[in-house]
Amino acid sequence: MVYEFMHWLAQRDWAMDFAGSAWFYPAVLATHLCCIAAFGGMILVTNLRLLGWGLTDFSISDVVGKLRPWKRLGAVIMLTAGFLLGGSEADKYYPNPYFWTKMALLILIAIHGLAFRPSVYLNTAALDRAPVPPARAKLAAALSLILWIGVVCMGRLIGYYEGPVSAKQAAPASSSQQVASGIIPQ
Amino acid sequence: MLFLQGAPPTNPVSAVLNSAEWIFPTCEIFHIVGFGIAIGTIAVVDLSLLGLGFKQKAATRLRKDTALWTLTALVVVLTAGFVLFLTSPLHYLYNSAFQLKMTTLFLAIIFNYTVHRKVASSEIVSPGAGILVGAASLALWLTVVASGLFIAFVPEAGGY
User: Fold this and answer.
1) Which residues, 6+ apart, have CB-to-CB distance to A84 below 8 Å?
2) Considering only CB atoms, which chain B residues are within 8 Å of A67?
3) Do B153 and A24 meet the contact criterion of CB atoms below 8 Å apart?
4) What is the dihedral of CA B36, A153, B81, B66, to 10 degrees?
5) Who's near B75: CB < 8 A, 6+ residues apart?
6) What distance in Å separates the CA atoms of residue B152 and residue B160, rounded to the nearest whole number?
7) C-alpha–C-alpha distance, residues B84 and B34, integer Å
8) pLDDT digit string (tens) for B50-87?
9) A54 Cβ under 8 Å from any chain B Cβ
10) How far apart are CA A77 and CA A73, in angstroms?
11) What tens digit of pLDDT does each residue of A140-175 get?
12) Among A160, A155, A143, which Cα is nearest to A33's?
């Protein structure tokens, strides 16, 4: 079912035009990358503040509140560009384990946001009143950093997956595999 | 720089760097996460100079609080980037997107540690100057990122 949908998506006229365009595809990819530069720092800065590692001149409410609308804007641009990039080559991405790991991490990020919303992100005034930053705020920040760095790593590695067939052809079997398969006599 | 001459993998440095397939993607990941931190922290200051998000007055403290992160990440980005460059120096030197990237990178670094530092560090910023400097900084850094991406998309020149 998932494969049928992804195959159908990649066969749309817009998807085929987009994937084959000389300038539009790289321009959208550049936009996707620019979002890391423009909005990634906001995620870092928020988490540094929650950990108490930086921006201690500012209150947690200030950092979380002031950056929230800009992070939302960043997410909208990022997801739109990402949908164009992924959707236009959906059938190629279907067997790609890095793509699915990235999607799983994005789902975990959504769950993370919802899970820590009441206790951390919508509770900043109470966090500011606490004498030391509460453990749950630090946990939220640490998890957020790990998840986002994971997303960036997986995003880059998507481009290195060569597919189930060509990967086998490209990678020569290790000598132990060759021994096991009888190519090299024991 | 004689060792850089000759198309890869004829120079020994490139040969070593291309000998294991994990080296290039690993450097790319450090490069990308690094610029996310380096440019990302600069962008937070830029947006504040533009009066977006934080108030313009907050730029001074924002820059002070993020300066060490920016510098550390910049060192990581430049180091990883230099290793990526060394995998195939001539391929990059003749690439027009790479040339644009190096030019804007040079300007962006100079700008960041002269004009940007001065304007973001002075308590009395005229709103106009702040907006101009924030916009110029964002434009320079985003051009660096975008032209970096285009390195892989411009037509190959000179057969390298």
Assistant:
1) A18, A28
2) 44, 53
3) no
4) 20
5) none
6) 13
7) 14
8) 988 898 889 999 999 999 999 999 999 999 999 999 99
9) yes
10) 6
11) 999 999 999 999 999 999 999 987 754 444 444 444
12) A155
